[in-house]
Design a protein that fits this description.
With about 220 residues, this protein is α/β, with parallel strands linked by helices. Strand 4 and strand 5 form a beta hairpin. Strands 2-1-3-6-12-13 form a 6-stranded mixed β-sheet, sandwiched between helices. Strands 8-9-7-10 form a 4-stranded antiparallel β-sheet. A 3-stranded antiparallel β-sheet has the order 4-5-11, with helices on one face. It contains 6 helices and 13 strands. Helix 1 packs across helix 2. The chain has 2 domains: about 140 residues, 3-Layer(aba) Sandwich (Rossmann fold); about 60 residues, 2-Layer Sandwich (Alpha-Beta Plaits), CATH 3.30.70.260. The structure holds ribulose-5-phosphate (5RP). The site of ribulose-5-phosphate (5RP) has 17 residues, from helix 4.
């Protein structure tokens, strides 16, 4: 089975977790691109969705999935998103698509955060780079403070006007690195998602979906 098929079966399994009337956070990426038609095909009534990127919002609307601004909703019943890496204890690296700031806000608002992936994403230990979103204000000074391990990515600014960058240093201790990055006032978000944020991992592998629960 191809990686894309593994993404699809994981996404289809996650779509089954969405029920009528739920508030739903929609992630970003090629795995989520399989999730959206699977949700649309269920013909659910009364769901209210928020999207973590313009690409997801456009695809969802095109499929008839209602998407609204994430300003009217206080919490979400479920959020479903892909990942770049996931460790056995549930640490993630996200942000390959540069959407990690909105993805983290949506995940944090969700009662249940479900991660979907193909079999290439589980790893024994996280390896960089760790995506960053840096505030545009004071960007040069932020980069100077963060040092040579951080490089700007040659991509457009985020929808929140953040500059997308990557931390290319070693990740000996994800929690310590997360704390260090969060201590810099110029860092709007980093792509390290802690295990206590992740409820469930669905991995498509071969022809089956394996499930792990975390928090
Ligand atoms: C985007 C992300 C994606 O979820 C992550 O990069 C996985 O992408 P894909 O599903 O295309 O493999 O974090 O910012």
């Amino acid at each position: 089975m191809s990686a894309d098929d593994e993404k699809r079966i994981a996404a289809e399994a996650a779509a089954e977790l969405v029920e009528d009337g739920m508030t739903v956070g929609l992630g970003t990426g090629s795995t989520v691109a399989h999730l959206l038609p699977a949700i649309a095909a269920r013909g659910l009534s009364g769901i209210r969705c928020v999207a973590t990127s313009v690409a997801t919002e456009e695809q969802a609307r095109g499929l008839g999935i209602p998407v609204e601004e994430f300003s009217a909703l206080e919490r979400l019943d479920i959020a479903i998103d892909g990942t770049d890496q996931v460790t056995p204890d549930g640490w993630l690296i996200k942000g390959g698509g540069g959407a990690h700031l909105r993805e983290k806000i949506v995940a944090a608002a969700a009662e249940r955060f479900v991660v979907i992936s193909d079999s290439s994403k589980p790893v024994d230990a996280l390896t960089g780079p760790v995506p960053l979103e840096l505030f545009a204000f004071g960007l040069r000074s932020t980069l100077a403070r963060l040092g040579p391990e951080v490089e700007l990515r040659d991509v457009p600014r985020s929808p929140d006007d953040g500059a997308i960058a990557d931390h290319r240093g070693e990740i000996d201790d994800p929690a310590a690195l997360a704390t260090r990055l969060e201590a810099d006032p110029g860092v709007a978000a980093h792509g390290l998602f802690p295990p206590d944020m992740v409820s469930e991992l669905l991995v498509g592998a071969g022809g089956a979906v394996t499930r792990s629960t975390f928090s």
